[in-house]
């Protein structure tokens, strides 16, 4: 694994993908034009998108894992989830509105999230390290919105596109980790009052904390760490459900309360 693209190409692709996000239009997957690009290239493009945002004064609000179901990983032929970041302007209050026209083809997924109280750094980070570093657990719903036409992409393209990050809604209930059993924690996702997905925390790699250990190990390879005080979305417990304008989304989390919002 190595970076195969030159810095100018990385910068050009980062601008291309970020413009598609900020102006809400779709593009074809970048591996069509750069078939030999590597995983490291994909993360380098994502890091450049992050640098562009921070240079404009945008704050990074947290980190996220995607593709965290073992079945999906197997289907895509990968051993590890994909990782990205969320930015301050992507936050929507619980009970608030997501502006549908600012997005391309959004989908929603329920996520179990944590905030850390100690840094986590790979390699060699395991679930015990993660447990020791967690301050509290809280619920959220992520709105993903791939910038790729018809949601057609491969993993390198989706990493470069910051794992389809678009919006997130955090619920107002927090609990200590020792009060919860994350693998059996049930989640019910409703759209317009109708149940469209039911799942439990075990859908995320058997335990959502495994995704955090994998994230720390992946970042460690790039000389980065998860700082103390980081908000982390561990990946979709439910599958990603397409939504339309006017939809009301309500997610009920066992022991963690509800998260709801609508697409205006």
TrEMBL record:
- EC number, UniProt record: 4.1.1.77
GO molecular function list:
4-oxalocrotonate decarboxylase activity
**NCBIfam families under this entry?**
catechol_dmpH
User: Does Glycoprotein appear among the keywords?
Assistant: no
> At the top level of its lineage, which domain of life is listed?
Bacteria
Q: What gene name does this entry carry?
A: dmpH
Protein name per the record? 2-oxo-3-hexenedioate decarboxylase
Catalytic class of the enzyme: lyase
The alphabetical list of record keywords is: Lyase
Q: What PANTHER family does the annotation carry?
A: 2-KETO-4-PENTENOATE HYDRATASE, ACID HYDRATASE
Domain Fumarylacetoacetase-like C-terminal, chain residue ranges per copy? 105-262
Keyword check for Lyase, yes or no.
Answer: yes
Organism name: Thauera mechernichensis
């Amino acid at each position: 694994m190595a970076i195969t693209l030159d810095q100018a190409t990385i910068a050009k692709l980062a601008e291309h993908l970020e413009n598609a996000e900020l102006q809400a239009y779709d593009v074809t997957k970048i591996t069509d034009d750069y078939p030999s690009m590597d995983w490291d290239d994909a993360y380098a493009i994502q890091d450049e998108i992050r640098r562009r945002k921070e240079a404009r004064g945008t704050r990074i609000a947290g980190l996220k894992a995607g593709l965290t179901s073992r079945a999906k990983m197997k289907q895509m032929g990968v051993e590890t989830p994909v990782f990205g970041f969320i930015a301050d302007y992507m936050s929507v209050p619980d009970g608030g509105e997501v502006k549908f026209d600012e997005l391309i083809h959004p989908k929603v997924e329920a996520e179990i999230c944590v905030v850390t109280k100690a840094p986590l750094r790979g390699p060699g980070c395991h679930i015990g390290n993660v447990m020791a570093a967690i301050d509290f657990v809280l619920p959220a719903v992520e709105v993903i919105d791939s910038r790729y036409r018809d949601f057609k992409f491969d993993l390198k393209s989706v990493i470069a596109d910051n794992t389809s990050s678009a919006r997130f809604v955090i619920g107002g209930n927090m609990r200590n980790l020792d009060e919860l059993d994350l693998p059996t924690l049930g989640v019910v996702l409703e759209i317009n009052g109708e149940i469209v997905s039911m799942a439990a925390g075990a859908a995320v790699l058997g335990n959502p904390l495994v995704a955090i250990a994998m994230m720390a190990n992946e970042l460690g390879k790039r000389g980065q760490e998860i700082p103390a005080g980081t908000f982390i979305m561990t990946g979709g417990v439910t599958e990603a459900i397409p939504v339309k304008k006017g939809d009301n989304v309500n997610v009920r989390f066992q022991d963690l309360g509800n998260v709801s919002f609508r697409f205006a």
